[in-house]
Amino acid sequence: MIDLKKMSFLIVDDMDNMCRSIRSMLKILDYGSSYRLAGNGKEALQLLRQFSVNLAIIDWNMPVMTGIELLDSIRADKELRDMPVIMITAEANSEIVAEAAESDIDAYLLKPITVKSLGSKIEKVVERANNPPPALSLLKEVRNLMEARKFDEAIPICRKAIEADPTSSRPIRTMGEIFFKNEEIDLAERWFVKAAQMNHLDVFSFHHLGDIYLRRNDLDKAFRFYEKAMKISPRHVDRAINFGKVLLQKGKVDKAGTVFENAVRLSGSPMELREDVGRSCLNACAFHAAINQFEVILKQFPKRFDIMKMMGIAKSSTGNDEEALALFLKVAEKEPDDFDLHLRIAKIYVTMKQTFRAEEILQKLQRMDPEHQEVRRLIAKNL
Question: At which residues are the TPR repeats (predicted)?
Fold first, then answer.
């Protein structure tokens, strides 16, 4: 049980004066005996892993790590995930409400904060933590069963949660998640559709429906549901990447590029994400978009020869053989046994009518694989 007088708080805001102001309000309310302050999400996580905290008060809009990103990290940590969290925001728009619901936030508080509004919100959150409603307790039980992959046991418990809170889409979408994780996709679809019909801001359900239709290669439906999810909550990196890949497959390269750049900007690992985006663009034959991603990576990591090779493939595919050749030759110095790479170099030499250089490489490749049909065809053509 959390004691209002003795509880410990973590206050997270990039504005130091806001952290101190909230701490002062808590002292006026006579709530808590311990207060820790953090200037960003990363600092907050370090403190949470070092000290016991009963309730975190987090600003939604922060650099380094946003409030939602911090909340996602908290909910993903088995030691921290049941800690109550209050999110502070300047406005209650649909995006914030949707993200709050998706991330299992306990409450959000609008600025400007007053002693009265802060005290009222904390009282409600603590009361709910001390006396959780039946549906919430049941859903936590479902979560634990899902993590243990006991899906058959989770289903009846989830049905009880639906009966306990029939007006909420959360237990219904949780049922969809059970079936989704158990690879029962048709059943998962039915429950996610039902949740989305109940709550037009249930971005979790829209996102999973996009995943389901993408898996079925039904690009039109995948596009429709990802687009709905993105309109409600555009700050989810994985959602943006999946949506961008659907756009690529539908040939909407420019729009995909915009979505990808937004995802990269939000990502905590932008170079890793750029690589994923670049590969996806290359596979979708969106060569100029792929080149844009690979160029950024190579500026920071000029010795990434795997990226250099992919950029060479993209350059060659756009008809820029000279630049592609220069890239391939650099990679060849490090990868002398890369058959595919040397075949690409030989093909460019054939195109450039540099017969002697092409022949030298092709003869080497034929010794490596005497039955390779394309090598044999090129030798015959070149000679």
Answer: 203-236
